[in-house]
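INTERNAL AUDIT FORM
Audit reference: QA-55
Scope: verify that the stored structure record matches its stored sequence.
Auditor: D.O.
Record contents follow.
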Amino acid sequence: MSVMMVTVMQVLDTSVTNVALPHMQGSMSAGIEEMSWVVTSYLAANAVAIPATGWLSARFGRRRFFLICTVLFTASSFLSGIAPNLEFLVAMRIFQGLGGGPIIPMAQAIMWEIFPLRQRGTAMAVWGVGIMMAPILGPTVGGWLADNWSWRWIFYINLPIGVLGFFMASAFLFDSPYQKKPGAVDW
């Protein structure tokens, strides 16, 4: 449950932002081209972080690295919400992408490892339903928050989920006893 909660938070954030871009644009007096960096910076940082996930998980331990990513994503969500200008928002979205990128591959590895062979299919199917619901709900949630409260709330909604997910993962996740230490980085 904790792995799925954090993963859904990360996937939801990808789609919830797109709807709030016009609200952010007006608030920050920015053009369309400038606002595109809010999405692009997140996706680029995600793409950079994903290939390093296996090595970093082995280096720090999967549990510790999952917790680090959860904290990084949640803290940068808060900082994105309080962003005073576009440059700061883009910088925080980079950190959000660096924290969010490894979450999905780690969540899949954790699910694969903690469930016995006969339950893996069911576990991955339930996890997949959560992952598929996030982009479906994202635009609706993002539009509602931006219209009724403020665009900043699309980032603040990550705070309770991230904190709860962190404590649940701290309590229930453990590193595998047979995990090997990584070798050198394969440049």
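Auditor finding: record pair retrieved intact. The longest helix spans residues 117-148.
Action required: none
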